[in-house]
Amino acid sequence: MLNNYGIDIWSDDNFVIEKGLAKVNFKSKPSLISIVKEVREQDFKGPLLLRFPHITKKQITTLYDTFNTSIDEYNYNGTFNAVFPLKVNQLPTFIHPLIQNGKEYNYGLEAGSKAELVIAMTYNNLNSPITVNGFKDKEMIHLAFIARSKGHNITLIIEGINELETIIGIQEETHLPCPNIGLRVRLHSGGSGIWAKSGGINSKFGLTSTEILEAYEMIKENEMIEYLTMIHFHIGSAMNSIKPLKKALRESGHIYAELKNLGAENLNAINIGGGLAVEYSAYERNRFYSLREFASDVIFTLRDIAKQKGVDEPNIFTESGRFISAASTVLVTPVLELFSSEYDLEHLKLKESNPPLIEELNLLFKDMVKKTSYEYMHDAIDHMESLLTLFDLGYIDLQDRSNAEILTHQIIKKAISQLEVEDYEELKRLDENIQEKYLLNFSMFQSLPDYWGIDQEFPIMPLTHLNKKPTRSASLWDITCDSDGELPFDSKKALYLHDIDLNKEEYFLGFFNVGAYQDTLGMKHNLFSHPTEVNVVFKDEEVVLEKVIESQTIIDILEDIDYDTSDIKNRLKENLDINTYKILEKYLNENNYLKTIWSYND
Ligand SMILES: *Cc1c(COP(=O)(O)O)cnc(C)c1O
């Protein structure tokens, strides 16, 4: 069986393998490698982020269509509304197409900081909702009043009574129209998954039941009841099961209904936060529900409670971000080197007379046939260990050691190639010993911060060679000088890649589903900044590359961390002739990633 890298688990039909190539499963179905080549022809080397706005659009459409179908099915009287939480991806290359594609649904934005709120009040379509979460100071609340004055449909979701006091204060002070008010409730039911701490009684966020009652009284006393429109909760990101959501719906549904019965006459919405999961694993499914089930459960539960308590069915808001953006972005990393390539046979320099163990290795290499490959490989690894001991004791020299290393690697390679077809299982047992290390032109800290920080898996697949059996158990290294910049081989989630001669052909790896959280969580370790990015847009059958933004130049990176760049240039000029300085200046204006590693002329 060919290794398909779990594409049927994680790709949701967004990408397919055809004729050995990873292709975008849309319109003219371009291969990813053809897109990468086109970008690199414009002299953009290093890692690439390919964004596919049509995938974001598909997710938005799927979300609305699924909920609206359930609404029809259950004859539900509320509406479905959604906002994109900006913290999941604030970059303009992602946000502009999202706003455009969401317009027909009135898809809105959620902001959790002042800077995010400024993005929302600048670019959100006026008819689409804005929700504001997180801790707020006076300025942030004032910004929301200003957004309301501009005509935005904005809801301030309060996290504490003090925020409500500030809202009342600002209204008295400015007489600006008041935004709608939402109450974030602190549920006793928690979430599931690693991020569950956003829900539950010890959660960082939300009002206790006592505070909810207190807030209601305060709103009423200040004659602001018309602005109280929303109940909100968020039980955490990447829910793998639907059970905690059902509990949270019951709890918040009853709070909604009770407040309505108390006299909150304009209260009309329950905002269920985010948390819809996507599949990141290439080995097993981790999400145990479908979007249809999710939608039906929300609508069924809320209808049930409304009926029980005799109130109108609430409008539904969601703030799912990961579900909308993850699949839209693919990180492409060029492979710079396979570490064992330095053990090519051409470097072998056997002497007239060699130490016996080396003669032995040479014979193993020459005589190895399929039947003996497993055994000979074992012998070779044993011999190699003995030879290293002999070297440490001073009995063999550096040339002998080099010969031993080359021969052992060649024996392993030969064994792998002889075993590959039928004895895959046998091979697997040896994987730990015979890994190949692939050096990738990217920074894990910058581009996969969730892998570094919380061991988040991402699907990995080469863009080419997919009709050939991958034979090397792989560990991946980034180009930072940090040993944490490594994705080690894991026999339980084994990654196999192809044995490539990089002098003859290029090899690129794709990391998929990286469109949520990675872009701005990433950090500039070793001063590797954001990769070059491009939006891949389909105009009829044609593929158009829009908004190519090159990775920052070295001089810009230094400016960003507050170096005085003219001082840098003046100092660098000292003691250099003008031509040498000109070359240096050209380098300052290139990005920080490697161009190539093996060729001087390239
Ligand atoms: C982070 C967050 C979201 C988005 O969560 P996803 O798991 O990305 O869907 C939604 N609402 C609030 C309040 C959040 O803090």
From TrEMBL:
List the EC numbers from the record: 4.1.1.19
One Pfam family matching this protein: Arg_decarb_HB
Q: Which PROSITE patterns match?
A: ODR_DC_2_1
Q: Which residues form the Arginine decarboxylase helical bundle domain?
A: 352-425
Residue positions, PTM N6-(pyridoxal phosphate)lysine: 87
Cofactor dependency? Mg(2+); pyridoxal 5'-phosphate
* Catalytic machinery residues: 481
Question: Where does the Orn/DAP/Arg decarboxylase 2 N-terminal domain start and stop, copy by copy?
Answer: 79-326
Annotated keywords:
Decarboxylase, Lyase, Magnesium, Metal-binding, Polyamine biosynthesis, Pyridoxal phosphate, Spermidine biosynthesis
Q: Which top EC class applies here?
A: lyase
Molecular functions per Gene Ontology:
arginine decarboxylase activity; metal ion binding
BP terms from Gene Ontology: L-arginine catabolic process; putrescine biosynthetic process from arginine; spermidine biosynthetic process
Q: Which Gene3D superfamilies match?
A: 1.10.287.3440, 1.20.58.930, Alanine racemase, Lyase, Ornithine Decarboxylase, Chain A, domain 1
Asked if Thylakoid is a keyword of the record, the answer is no
Q: Which CDD domains match?
A: PLPDE_III_ADC (cd06830)
Question: What domain of life?
Answer: Bacteria
InterPro entries assigned: Ala_racemase/Decarboxylase_C, Arg_decarb_HB, Arg_decrbxlase, De-COase2_N, De-COase2_pyr-phos_BS, Orn/DAP/Arg_de-COase, PLP-binding_barrel
Entry keyword Glycoprotein: no
PANTHER family per UniProt: ARGININE DECARBOXYLASE, BIOSYNTHETIC ARGININE DECARBOXYLASE
Q: Which purpose does this protein serve, as stated in its record?
A: Catalyzes the biosynthesis of agmatine from arginine.
Similarity-based family: Belongs to the Orn/Lys/Arg decarboxylase class-II family. SpeA subfamily.
Name listed for the protein in its UniProt record: Arginine decarboxylase
State the taxonomy lineage: Bacteria, Pseudomonadati, Campylobacterota, Epsilonproteobacteria, Campylobacterales
Its gene? speA
